[in-house]
Amino acid sequence: MSEGRPTRRTVLAGALGTGVALGAASLLSGCGSAASDDRLRVAFAGGGSRENLDPHVVLNYVDQARAKACFDTLSCWSEDMGAVPRLAESWEVDPTGTRWRIHLRDARFHDGRPLTPDDVLYTFRRIADPATGATAAKLFTTVDLTASRALGPRDVEVVLTAPNFLFPLAWAAPGAEIVPRGTTSFERPVGTGPFRWVSFSPGGPALYSANPDHWGGAPPSRELEFVPVDEEQGRVGALLSGQVAYAFDLRASSAVSLGTDSRAKVLSAPGSASQFLYLRVDRPPFVDPRLREAVRLGLDRQALVRVVLLGKGQVGNDLFGQGAQYYDTAPPQVTRDVEQATALVAQAGATGSRIELQTSTADPIYQAAAGVIAQQLGEIGLQVVPRTLPPDSYYATIRSQGVSSVSSVGSLPLPDYIGRRMVSSATARNFTGYRDPQIDALSAAAVATPNEADRVASYSRAQELIRASSGMLVWAAADMHVGIAADLGGVEVARPNTDRWARFDRARLG
Amino acid sequence: MTTTAPAPGTVDRPRTLPRRLVGRVAVAAGQLVAVSVIVFALTAALPGDTAEVVLGQQATPEQVAALRAQLGLDRPVLLRFADWVGGVLTGDPGRSLVTGVPVADELAGRLASTASVAGLALLVIVPVALAAGVTAGRRPGSVTDRVITAVATAGQAIPEFASGLVLVAVFAVTLGWLPATAGGGSFTGPAVLVLPVVVLALNQVGRLARQIRIGVVETERAEYVVHLRRLGMGERTLLLRHVLPGALPPTVQQLARVVDGLLGGVVVVEALFALPGVGAGFVEAVQGRDLPLVQGYALLFATTTVVVNLLADLVSDRLAPHREALR
């Protein structure tokens, strides 16, 4: 054997040594600081490495929950989607609906600075600036920042370029949190919220400590940690194993199984996510209203709720916003009529037509819903074929391609839904190609009138039009499920986006 | 096609180890180029792009178009690929389109977590597979052999996702002995790694054990082993000095495939246990259509596979003492 060549023995020894070294390094790198027990841990699906703590860009529920911990909004949405005070202690509007006088609460930012009118005006300016890419930008485009001004240390007058008697609803929207004047970076965010930022890594955990000086009182929990767990089963496992005390957005099947587990409780918020079947009204075959009506009559909504939602939801009536203010309860509940639906399909010359139904894993409900819908519409003579699309580009795809799709919309005030999604300018979320100038006019009239009865009439008429012609069929309003540890108190059943949702400053362990 | 016989008096010399190494490295380089082209083409062919993913559901087409132009996504695909290749060749694989973080930093930040899980899994797999494979191989057809083979096959057959859910249900949820999730780095320490390592090992240990068993069975039947046993050589000496060395070369090749399998399994395991490793990062990069990052991960995985297989070839070569003579 020549010198210098590795022998079989040295190769084996080398491999063994490398393995041991790797293992030792692995063990060491796996070690870290022990998790503190005096910490409220809450699990959400994360947003990945593109996350940041800018409270004006909130793409996911976890972004909203983190923003809510560190910041406050001027108002909040109540459970029926009205506006209730938060940083704005009170407000009044002039008869024209264009001048809003807001009296601010005596609150301080985490760095000790008092909340001032300048902070409010800076926030509105930043949200409205297209460069920010703010989630709520459209709600603040009518703010006249030149004319708006401070009236005193805690009073601000906001002037609008168009009347809006529902402007306080905009202050409560996700992504409308008040930030200190001049803030351009949120790497170390400072807010007025009940928790102070401690640490955060995009796609990783976010840690906050209780703000003892919060205007609402110090939170019972000393620390709050957001734990990113994308897999729903992972969140359930983390809850039941005691790793987290709160697990957001559970499937109906998990809600059912957790209901019998003494270690956890399930909070199910009714009517939290309207489930849609979208039909493109600007493309064949659903450009034909007879076919849209056939699909409306062909859906068995009760069966969809029973099978897809396991009964955890309310049957839809092709209108968004069950349980919310201005929701139109007048139309009779649509029921299945296979005979008439089949006849309409035949009249439209579509019997046996193959129709692609776009669906996705973006939401666990979508694929199951698409399967059941395809089966139901098969009974009226349509050959509906579900097609699963990648989740991350799903909404962009269904906006530009296809003829039908399934989707959902979370809790929003009806004026917000119509004003931001149904009007002609709302191109980003137009999934059916529906445009009607009457909706624009009705939406503008509804917010411009001080008369509540007129407003109700405008919104009822808008819903009537949407229901008749938009191609948006709401087959259910699904419950949103949150699992909490059995010993976690202070957390209430609440729809996402509302005041009481993710209110961790009231949560108490033990 | 014609073949030419060696000229009288000349010897058909086998290629030396360095020459073979050069050849293998050249092939490996070609494989890496092929992988990068295929991955780039497939990712570019996916519906949607980074601009749509970053801006989310509410973005207007105008906003998407603006970001697309800002990120250079409106340029021809071939031009972008050429830029990327140029960057790689000059040591700069670019930056993430989503976060702006250099690709090398992104990969390095996640590598420690994956190395921990995969490395520990290997430390479990090798001795367990060795013990099981040798035990089964020395008594082929026995009850022990059949049990080990059945368990090994079952371990291979159960996908990581399924075994992970079951193990979490038993050891985290029911018994409460182990953590159910790493929570994206919220929970640290050795206990967090136990279930991910076991899930990975369960799937791969059977693969290696079966190969070791085959090697041991074949070596046990070799004439020289039968002869040595007949001469009265002790079983321990026979095993350590003759049977195992004879069974090892094909096992090393299988070990390389196990490492490949670990790289695939780690994507599932990291998603299941919310571990912030390269597997989870790769999935996120694909979901975000983050081409430079996808390319970076693909090259990392491909390089690991190529290097591991190359090493396996070299080690096998070294462990087979008669290979040169047989040529």
From TrEMBL, chain A:
Its main location: other. PROSITE patterns: PROKAR_LIPOPROTEIN (PS51257), TAT (PS51318). InterPro entries: Peptide/Ni-bd (IPR030678), SBP_5 (IPR039424), SBP_5_dom (IPR000914), TAT_signal (IPR006311). Coiled coil: none annotated. Residues 84-402 form the Solute-binding protein family domain. It is found in: Cell envelope. Transmembrane segments: none annotated. Gene3D superfamilies: Dipeptide-binding Protein, Domain 3 (3.10.105.10), Periplasmic binding protein-like II (3.40.190.10). The keyword Metal-binding does not apply. Belongs to the bacterial solute-binding protein 5 family. This is ABC transporter substrate-binding protein.
